[in-house]
Amino acid sequence: MTISLSLFDIDEIGCVMCNQRNAGIIGVGSAVPEKVLSNADLEKMVDTSDEWIRTMTGISERRMAADGEATSDYATKAAKIAMERAGVKPDSINLIIVATVTGDMQYPATASIVQNALGCKNAAAFDLGAGCSGWVYALAAANGFITSGMYDYVLVIGADLLTRVTNWTDRSTCCLFGDGAGAAVVGPVAEGEGMLGFDLGSDGSGSHVLCIPDGGSRRPLTHETLDAHKDKTHMEGREVFKFAVKIQGEATERLLTRLGMTTQDIDMLIPHQANIRIIDSAVQRLGLPKEKCYINIQRYGNTSAGTIPIALDEAIQEGKVKKGDTIVTVGFGAGLTWASGVMKWVY
Ligand code: ACO
Question: Which terminus in the chain has less CB density within 10 A, N or C?
Answer without folding.
Answer: N
